[in-house]
Amino acid sequence: MRLVAPALLIEFLFVFLPLTLGVYYSVHTVRYFQVGAFIGLDNYVGVLTSPAVRNSFVVTAIFALGSLILTFTVGLALALHLERDGRMQVFMRAVVLVPYIISMLVGSLLLRWVLSQDSGVPQAVLGPFGSSGFSIFANSTSAMGALTYNAMWRDAAFAMILLLAGLKSIPLELYAAARVDGASAWYRFRRLTLPLLKTPILITIVRLLMHFINSLTFQLILTGGGPANTTETIALRTFRLGFEDYALGRANALSFVMFIFNVILISVLIHLFKPGEKLR
What we know:
Layout: H1 5-26, E1 28-31, E2 34-38, H2 42-48, H3 51-81, H4 87-101, H5 104-114, H6 121-126, H7 140-168, H8 172-180, H9 185-196, H10 198-214, H11 217-223, H12 234-243, H13 248-272
Antiparallel strand pairs: 1-2
């Protein structure tokens, strides 16, 4: 028991206690860190009927799905390309891991500088043609594209690591037997590699999707939610409710709604990838 007690204490202090306090604050009026009267579900009704929150749900869905598709595709391509243990492949794995080693804050600041209107890539490319006034972050589509690229640039290496581990666990004899039977590379990938990668794919999708849905640093540092809140996700809206508007009751209510949504989403994904089901 003495060996388990420190872990249980940490779990209580950093998981159970904050979650309990969050639920408590979500059913009270909390302004400027002062807990007021009990108001039941009014905070939940307020956030779920707020146009700003509804907009952030849409933005979160676009950002999370776009980043997931792009990051997973690039990560799978890298894993397939760098599966062999040759000298060049090992070197390229280390190179690909560099963005993931860099913190999200530093990476977002770096990309913001690279894409800045004054001294970044737009100025270098479009300046000689007299179009230096173009700003990537002033357009909703290009700002979302930059946000999605930032997520992929950093987390594709993480997807590669998980999928590469799954590829390494597939016996080479299966591929040799498939080649003897005349199976093409595409057929081997579709009928052999993908089914045997079901568990690593599930882990990768769940991990990436939860990260993109709940990420704050990308949006806060790179775009600030602009232009006109078109890149303001749920995490950023929660942050602003709590630390800019000081409406901590509503911020905790929105956080708990997202907690429930995450649990439901993970359950759905696990059901779709459960043993015995074909990979869709």
